[in-house]
Structure formats: structure tokens, C-alpha cells
Amino acid sequence: MKKLVILLLSLVPALLLTPHLLAEETVVIEKAWIREAPPPVEVLAAYMVIKNPTDKDIILTDAESSRFKHIMFHQSMLENGIVKMRHVENIVIPAHSSFEFKPGSFHLMLMGKDKILQAGDKVQLRLFFENNEPVEVLAVVKKIEAEEE
Amino acid sequence: MSSASGKTPLILLALAALLAGAFLFLSLDKPQRIAHTQQKIPGLLWPAPKPLTVFELRDQNNTPFTLEDLKGRWSMLFFGYTHCPDVCPTTMTLLDSVVDELKSEKKSAPQVVFITIDPERDTPKHLADYITYFNPDFRGLSGTPEKLSILTGQLGILSMKVDDQKTGKEGYIMDHTASIFLIGPEARLIGVFSPPHNKEDIMQRYLEMRKFIEKQASS
Ligand SMILES: [Cu+2]
Q1: ipTM entry
Q2: Paired sense of beta strands B174-177 and B159-161, if any
Q3: Chain A: nearest CA to B175, how far in angstroms?
Q4: CATH superfamily of B50-218
Q5: Domain segments of chain B: what residues?
Q6: Which of A42, A76, A81 is facing B86, going by the closest CB pair?
Q7: Tell me: the pLDDT tens digits for B61-86?
Q8: Any alpha helices (H) in chain B, and if so which ranges?
């Protein structure tokens, strides 16, 4: 019994020194939002930051929402003054780093909305990862400001 | 035969040297001249602003929009499509804030004209709600591909449907020129703002170009 207590006590400092092992050693999604679009527009874009605090690369493979027919990953890019948008199969979030979906760059392309979304609405998205549990995220619809591009 | 073939390389060599010299002269000379006249305002097409020629399109209210609508005022033209979820709405929002800020500074703002490169889906009816969302004063133009190409051809607008099975037929993507074109009151192309766009930068260059052209006109 005494031995067990000592063993447990000796573990305490180790646990205190590595709190992230207990709490945050998983994918974290921050700043998820959807750009409000004019009413007739059928496709919307969602943006967010995905943090990977783990020691392994994490691969985002798919996303879905009951509010949209399907979701894809897209990248907007500029080439010689021409704006292009391309479908991207996977998003790799390297170990101990983060990945940002942002205007003019990578975005989640939300296609086939069920009804008009307005600033303030919240949309549940589910993200699927390779070798990781799916993550639910609540994205807020908001208007983009000119400074945000 | 042997003497002729012996001479040929020499002649060719001399010709090549001459061409190379001429090329070098031209290539050195031209950028310097351009740099000299344009160094004041990037994107300004001076001394040869391009006069636009007649075209006929319709705006979101089905009102005709022709070359005449570009005369007697300054205009900013942007080409895009409403099914573009990322870059086009960003640019439209930016143009709205440019106009807004110019007005709040009591400066004369340009008319903003959005022209679709996707007439298949962007009918005037569809454009109406789209344009109003950003700014009810904006004009949103569409027309048949032939009628659109009369204007896009003059400005060198490139656009193409992307062959992407995954995105699907109804959700097809378009690649397109993302520049903003500044048209002066004589319906001439005065300046081109290349992407990526920045509000302050566009405002400043617009005001500078405007001032410059007005000075030319009065002198
Ligand atoms: Cu997209």
C-alpha cells in the first residue's frame, strides 16, 4: 500500500509537467466561419484554422453537413492575373503546426445549400480525418469586411 | 557547291549577329521607355490609353448598357461570375468599400460595373439579387457569349470553364481574369489594377490616375 502511494505521488509531477497529454493532444478547430453570400448564390465558402498539436501529421479527408449536398476542399490561386480555383483531395496538417483556410486561398466549398444562410446563422460541419476521430465544428455565418481579404 | 556552303555559315552568322543586336537594342530600349512614362502610377496606360468601341449588353434590370454608359464618368470594371464563392465576392465587397470611402471623403466615386463571364448561369434576373446584395448602385452586365466577347476581347479578358468532374456539372468552376479596369470619361481604358487587390492601393491609384488624366485634358 505504501509503495503504491509513493508510486502514485511520483507520477504527479510528471502529469503536471505535461498537461497537454491529458487535455489537448488532439485536433483543434478555431475561427470556423462561413462567408455570407447573396441570396441567389448556391455555393458558399467556409474558412477555419485547424491545429494539430500531436506528433503525427494529420490528414483531413472529407467534410459533410446536413445543410449542404456536398463539401469539397478548394484552393483559389492567382496565376498571371487570372484567378483559378482547384479541387484538392486532402489537406495535410503537419505535426505541431496548423493549417488555415482563408479567403483567396484554401476554402471549404459548400455546395447545394438547403436554404439561404444569413449572418449570425450557425452551421454544424463534420470533418473527417485519416487515422483520427471525426470532429464536429460549429461555423458562424458572417459578412466579410474589405480588410479581411 | 563546296564554296557556296562555305560561305553560307558566315552569312548566317552575320545575320544572326545583326538580329541579336537589333533584338538587344529593342528589348533594352522598350522597357526603359515604358518605365519612364509609367513610373509615376503603376498600372496607368499612358501615353496610349485604349479607346473602347461599341458593345451592347444588358444590366440586372434588363436595361441596355452600351459604350455610351461609359462616357462622361469614371468607371471600374470587374469580370467574374456569381457561382464564384471566394475571390469574386471579396472583390465586390472591396469595390463597395472603395466607393463608400471615396464618398465619405467627399471625393467623386466611379461607377462600378460587374460583367459576367458565365452568361449560361448569370442571367439578368440572377444578377439582380447578386448585385443588390453588394451595392444597389452597381451595374451587373450579361449578354450572349458573342455580345460579351465584343467587350471582353477589347480588354483581353480570359475565361474558361474548368474540366473538373468532381466539382460536378451544375457547380462548374471558371478561371478568369481578376484585374479591375479603370475606364475614363472618354470611354478609354486608362488603367489596370492587377490582383491581389488592396482597398487603399486601388483608391490611391484611382485618384492619382484621375488627377493625371484631368491635368492632361486641361493642358
Ligand atoms: Cu471553391
Answers
A1: 0.78
A2: antiparallel
A3: 5
A4: Glutaredoxin (3.40.30.10)
A5: 1-40, 50-218
A6: A76
A7: 999 999 999 999 999 999 999 998 89
A8: 2-38, 87-104, 124-134, 145-155, 199-218
